Amino acid sequence: QVQLVESGGGLVQPGGSLRLSCTASGRIFSINAMGWYRQAPGKQRELVAAITSSGNANYVDFVKGRFTISRDNGKNTVYLQMNSLKPEDTAVYYCNADIGVDSGLGYVPEYTNYWGRGTQVTVSS
Predict the structure, then answer these.
(1) What is the spatial distance between Cα 23 and Cα 71, in angstroms, rounded to a whole number?
(2) Block means of pLDDT (10 residues each) for the chain, length 125 residues?
(3) Are 73 and 6 in contact (CB under 8 A)?
(4) Which of 30, 35, 43, 76 could tie 50 with a disulfide, CB 3.0–4.6 Å?
C-alpha cells in the first residue's frame, strides 16, 4: 500500500560524495518526520539524520558538517547529501518515515512508521 524506495548508493573513495534519495509512494495523505538510518556489518542500526515536515533537521554528531538532509514534500522525497565520506561511513542506509495513509476520511487518524529496503554505501580506496 505504501512503500519507501531508496537510491543513490554505491562505491566511493574516501573524501568523495554521494547523494541518497528516498521516495514514498502509495496512498499517502501526509508525511511527518523522515529520516535516514544506517547499519554497518555486525553493528546495530543507528540514526544518521532526521527532518520534520516543516524542514527542521537534526544530525548525529558523527555526520555534522558532512551530511545534509533535505526533503521535497511535493515529491514525497527525502535526500541525504553525504560529503567528505570516510571508510567508517560504509553501511546499508535505510530511509524511514511516519506516513499517514489516505483512507478516504479526509484526515489522518494515526501515522504509521515505514522503512525502505536500504541502499549500500561503500567508502573504500
Answers:
(1) 10
(2) 96 98 96 98 97 97 96 97 98 97 83 97 97
(3) no
(4) 35
Question: 26 to each of 2, 75, 82, 108, how far by Cα in Å?
Answer: 4, 12, 27, 15
- Separation CA 80–CA 97 (nearest Å): 14
Which residue(s) pair with 96 in the sheet? 35, 115
**Burial classification of residue 57, based on how many CB atoms lie within 10 Å of its CB (0-12 exposed, 13-18 middle, 19 or more buried):** middle
Going by C-alpha positions, the residue among 8, 40, 37, 9 that lies closest to residue 97 is 37
> Which residue bears the cell 520534520?
52
State whether residue 87 is helix, strand or coil.
Answer: helix
For residue 24, the surrounding DSSP H or E stretch is: strand 18-26
